[in-house]
Amino acid sequence: MRVDILTIFPEMFKPLEESIIKRARDKGLLSVNVIDIREYTQDKHRKVDDYPFGGGAGMVMKPEPLFRAVENACDGENIPVVLLTPQGETFTQEHAQQLSRQERLILVCGHYEGVDERFRERIVSQEISIGDYVLTGGELPAMVLVDAVTRLLPGALGDDSSSQEDSFAEGLLEYPQYTRPRSFRDMEVPQVLLSGNHEAIRYWRRKMSLARTDKRRPDLLEKKILSPEDRKLLMEIKDTPPNFGNNNEG
C-alpha cells in the first residue's frame, strides 16, 4: 500500500518511522510519502490560507495548492482522497478495514477553519474524524488512520491473527490479558488460563469480552449480530456478573 499525506507540517510525521509502521515500511508492505502543501503554492510567501468570503473568524485553506498537490500525487490515476476533518464520519475499525483494501490512499490534513468547499466537492472522496473534540489540525488523525490501517495489512504484524483479536476487530472489546508472573502482589492469573484446555480458554475469553463490552460499551452490543453462544453467555453474565477486580474469575 502507498499512502500520500498532504500537510503543511511535514515534520510532525516522525512517529511513522517507528514501531509496526517502520517494520511494515522496511518489509515493503507500506510506502508513506509526506507532501508539503506549501510546495504547491505560487507566491513568494507560500501562502496556503486566506480570509473567508462573507467574513468570520479564522482562515480557510486555499483551493489552488490543494488541487495542485492532489493532482500531482494522483498523476492521472483515480485514487481515494480522504480529508481529515471534524466534520467527517467518526473513524471506526470498519473504516480501517475498508481502507486497508486500497492499493493507494491520499490523506489531506485539514487546518484552520477548514478547506475551501470547492476542494471538498470536487476532489475529496471521504471525510473522516477521529472523535468529537477539537485538534489543531489533521496531522494526528492522519497518523492514527495510518497506524490502524497498517495493522491490517497482511504480514505487518508478527502474527496476523493478532489484529483479529484486538478490541473492535469483531465489534467487541478485548478480553483481559495476563502474562508472567502467575502471582503478583497477591493477584493471581485466572486458573482457566493455566488449564491447557483450549476450548475452556476460548469460552472464558469470549465471555469476558462480552462482559467487558456490556459494562463499558453497551452501544457496541446493540449493533452486533450475536450468535446463539453469545446470547447464552450474555444470559450468564446478567445472572452472575463477572468481577473484573477478582483475578480468580474463571
Automatic annotation (TrEMBL):
<feature type="domain" description="tRNA methyltransferase TRMD/TRM10-type">
    <location>
        <begin position="1"/>
        <end position="223"/>
    </location>
</feature>
<dbReference type="InterPro" id="IPR023148">
    <property type="entry name" value="tRNA_m1G_MeTrfase_C_sf"/>
</dbReference>
<feature type="binding site">
    <location>
        <begin position="130"/>
        <end position="135"/>
    </location>
    <ligand>
        <name>S-adenosyl-L-methionine</name>
    </ligand>
</feature>
<comment type="function">
    <text>Specifically methylates guanosine-37 in various tRNAs.</text>
</comment>
<dbReference type="InterPro" id="IPR016009">
    <property type="entry name" value="tRNA_MeTrfase_TRMD/TRM10"/>
</dbReference>
<dbReference type="GO" id="GO:0002939">
    <property type="term" value="P:tRNA N1-guanine methylation"/>
</dbReference>
<keyword id="KW-0489">Methyltransferase</keyword>
<feature type="binding site">
    <location>
        <position position="110"/>
    </location>
    <ligand>
        <name>S-adenosyl-L-methionine</name>
    </ligand>
</feature>
<dbReference type="InterPro" id="IPR029028">
    <property type="entry name" value="Alpha/beta_knot_MTases"/>
</dbReference>
<dbReference type="InterPro" id="IPR029026">
    <property type="entry name" value="tRNA_m1G_MTases_N"/>
</dbReference>
<protein>
    <recommendedName>
        <fullName>tRNA (guanine-N(1)-)-methyltransferase</fullName>
        <ecNumber>2.1.1.228</ecNumber>
    </recommendedName>
</protein>
<keyword id="KW-0819">tRNA processing</keyword>
<keyword id="KW-0808">Transferase</keyword>
<dbReference type="GO" id="GO:0005829">
    <property type="term" value="C:cytosol"/>
</dbReference>
<comment type="similarity">
    <text>Belongs to the RNA methyltransferase TrmD family.</text>
</comment>
<comment type="subunit">
    <text>Homodimer.</text>
</comment>
<keyword id="KW-0949">S-adenosyl-L-methionine</keyword>
<keyword id="KW-0963">Cytoplasm</keyword>
<dbReference type="InterPro" id="IPR002649">
    <property type="entry name" value="tRNA_m1G_MeTrfase_TrmD"/>
</dbReference>
<dbReference type="GO" id="GO:0052906">
    <property type="term" value="F:tRNA (guanine(37)-N1)-methyltransferase activity"/>
</dbReference>
<dbReference type="Pfam" id="PF01746">
    <property type="entry name" value="tRNA_m1G_MT"/>
</dbReference>
